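Entry 12.
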Amino acid sequence: MNLINEFMDYLNVEKGLALNTLESYGRDLRNYGLFLEGDGVPQFERASRTTVVAYLVFLQKQGRATATVARRLAALKAFYQFLVRQKYIERDPTANVESPKLKKKLPRVLSVSEVEKLLGQPAGDSPQSTRDKAMLELLYATGIRVSELITLNLQDISLEAGYVRCIGKGSKERIVPVGTMAVRGTREYLQHGRTKLVTNAAEQALFVNHHGGRLTRQGFWKIVKKYAQDAQIPKDITPHTLRHSFATHLLENGADLRSVQEMLGHADISTTQIYTHVTKTRLKEVYAKAHPRA
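Predicted 3D structure (tokens):
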């Protein structure tokens, strides 16, 4: 597995990829290595186009989702391109292997009234309630990813100027404006909630758990699931639902696609364009319900 380790070092140092992305690459390549194993050693350098295709067929027979197969092929392509550059191999066995076609799933979004119901769930002035209120308001106000939310530090948000600075995929920094309600909720949390939760004065995490340490993604997800149930919202809510709703509601109200792309931190505008399909779908639904001859 030395070649995988060398490739992972390259991704970490040269590309500056996020930890989750690095772990995903490593997991996918180790899985491929197990498929290749001969005499207990994966023969990466001996693989041909036939080998790669056989691996993809193997994954499909295992019942792997198309998205999973496509992601693993992407990992292999990056890996073999690296091996060619480093002169470990002469030819890239993935060069003419096409990725399986992915069906674009429209993201699930909440209506404005459903968002208000969800954001209205944290009640009272307990430290946890003020924290939860601030997190939900901030997510919907900025559209940042959950992974970006939980890695925010105190110095990353300016309530006076009304912006948050976050580090997205590929370690890219971006500045996103924060609305009035989120500023108010975050200020309330910092003044009356966080001070009671933090046990170590040196802790820099903006959002902390009941032990005073940085809140985890899993911890946040449990919080969202609880409030979604309390709000009795009959939709399958995911950690990214507020992000999807943020983008859709902005576009529905006239925001331009480039601005939404920048706020979401998408490298490619085609990723952002899926939200235009969502708004068109909703327009059709409204038309079908409202027009007398629809």
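Annotation: The beta strands are 37-38, 41-42, 157-158, 163-167, 173-177. The mean pLDDT is 88.
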